[in-house]
């Protein structure tokens, strides 16, 4: 520590700074073993203590949140990467323990083949798929491999927000667990003396067969060339890598949820690790998704209503995951991502990742601090929305829109900044009866937030909701609003501009605002 | 004066993408004046093994943040990081935890 009068003439000592643990130190937990890994800042664990710590964290996160009821069908989203592979392995191990500590849900695995979006050749995709199937067969849960191209075949119902299941109370969870255990006990007593009670319990849960229970509609048939071509075209039409990443995530989420709904899964587990979520939090802030951080980074994400997304790996850092996978031989398959080998500034995601990791290197509590902050985020409903009907939702991320309807300034400045060539935000007071489905939602990719100041040409919000046939006037009508209000001549499709008029005539399909002075 | 050393250098987590997809490399480090430590090893790797995009692996005189280093299956933080003196038959493993560095078979990237 600095003190007045201290002599700085001597060179710094040769020893490492005190906080760095050395190999001669013992494991901080058992005080006996030789440490192999340093977790957090200075805690050295030996191999066995590390394994116990890792598994305990996984079980604790699930147990603490009490969202997964016994016997529930849970879909594990597996990308082949280290975090999701570790999660699958934890579930596998958790299900095979002796009955008191066993995990009690029924798992399935879904794997999305994103090769088309990443530009992989068909042979490369087939090879990666073969490796994945090998691991899936080893794991033994029912699995579903879905190509990203199938997103084009999704029914419009995916865009509808289903009614939310009422969250069980504390008492309900405990009651469910108790009755489940009672059932297990009864079955164990009734079962024959030879067969273990575990097997009986499994039958009671109707453990699905471990053959290939793939989607019967698309057995092992790869997507058609036309579909792959369409997907490539879609991704090529998106100009920035940031937007491509976001689009990929949105499509992937929709596809996983569809698989979950089709096969009766009520929960989806994703392998987002602590590090990854901290990066995602900062990236979301940069992308203007501040309103939805609690859903994007919290343990549970109920925005889709009937299917809840949970993140059991959210307390494991990437370092812990990598060490565990290496030390305990957890199999994983590497698949190329959109931004493989991309330079640091290629997208906001990459930049934020580099920033966070660099900061973490110098200040080892960075990731955990960001994580702890994200834990404090509360999913509060918007004022006035709690009692009324559910508001409109973004088509892409299914979050409730965070547009303030009484903010004309926002409407004027944002479209101007965005160049007005794109669909802009359309506020509404209450859900109108007929809202056209925007045909360009996938072409003019945007989001439910305004990416003002983004890296590439920022796109406006393609905000709308589900409903009837697309109206060609709708897009033109939306473009009209702000320039009309100001009486400016602005670029855009000439037919759409009506200059110098007073309050905007309400185009068909748009809800009539009660107050004509406010655009919308 | 350091004698020649034989060490195994391994890459995982997608880092192998920068090394022609080869995960394990058995290397013989030539004898030299200064003893071999991780710092010198990185310089040697950059010169002799790294095929492309050095900035994705090395930053300054250390590895890029996000790349873990294991020496004989132990965290390098326990062994002095860059100052660890290599010994014969050591095994150094570099695991990338970076998002974009996942590799696929026959990737076009």
Automatic annotation (TrEMBL), chain A:
Region (Disordered): 1-24, 492-520
An example molecular function term from Gene Ontology annotations: tRNA binding
Cellular component, GO annotation: cytoplasm
Superkingdom of the source species: Eukaryota
Keyword vocabulary terms for this entry: Cytoplasm, tRNA processing
KW Cytoplasm (keyword) present: yes
Major subcellular location class: cytoplasm
Localization: Cytoplasm
Keyword tRNA processing: yes
InterPro entries: CTU2, Rossmann-like_a/b/a_fold
GO process terms (BP): protein urmylation; tRNA thio-modification; tRNA wobble uridine modification
Pathway(s) it belongs to: tRNA modification; 5-methoxycarbonylmethyl-2-thiouridine-tRNA biosynthesis
Function description: Plays a central role in 2-thiolation of mcm(5)S(2)U at tRNA wobble positions of tRNA(Lys), tRNA(Glu) and tRNA(Gln). May act by forming a heterodimer with CTU1/ATPBD3 that ligates sulfur from thiocarboxylated URM1 onto the uridine of tRNAs at wobble position.
Protein family according to the UniProt entry: Belongs to the CTU2/NCS2 family.
Record note on quaternary structure: Component of a complex at least composed of URM1, CTU2/NCS2 and CTU1/ATPBD3.
Protein name: Cytoplasmic tRNA 2-thiolation protein 2
The species this protein was found in: Equus caballus (Horse)
From TrEMBL, chain B:
SUPFAM superfamilies: MoaD/ThiS
Keyword terms of this UniProt record: Cytoplasm, Isopeptide bond, tRNA processing, Ubl conjugation pathway
Compartment(s) where it occurs, according to its Swiss-Prot or TrEMBL record: Cytoplasm
Principal subcellular localisation of the protein: cytoplasm
Pfam family, one: Urm1
InterPro entries cross-referenced by the UniProt entry: Beta-grasp_dom_sf (IPR012675), Mopterin_synth/thiamin_S_b (IPR016155), Urm1 (IPR015221)
Xref: CDD domains: Ubl_Urm1 (cd01764)
One term under GO cellular component: cytosol
Pathway: tRNA modification; 5-methoxycarbonylmethyl-2-thiouridine-tRNA biosynthesis
Quaternary structure note: Component of a complex at least composed of URM1, CTU2/NCS2 and CTU1/ATPBD3.
Task of the protein: Acts as a sulfur carrier required for 2-thiolation of mcm(5)S(2)U at tRNA wobble positions of cytosolic tRNA(Lys), tRNA(Glu) and tRNA(Gln). Serves as sulfur donor in tRNA 2-thiolation reaction by being thiocarboxylated (-COSH) at its C-terminus by MOCS3. The sulfur is then transferred to tRNA to form 2-thiolation of mcm(5)S(2)U. Also acts as a ubiquitin-like protein (UBL) that is covalently conjugated via an isopeptide bond to lysine residues of target proteins such as MOCS3, ATPBD3, CTU2, USP15 and CAS.
UniProt record similarity statement: Belongs to the URM1 family.
HAMAP family recorded: Urm1
Protein's name according to its UniProt entry: Ubiquitin-related modifier 1
Source organism (scientific name): Equus asinus
Gene name as annotated: URM1
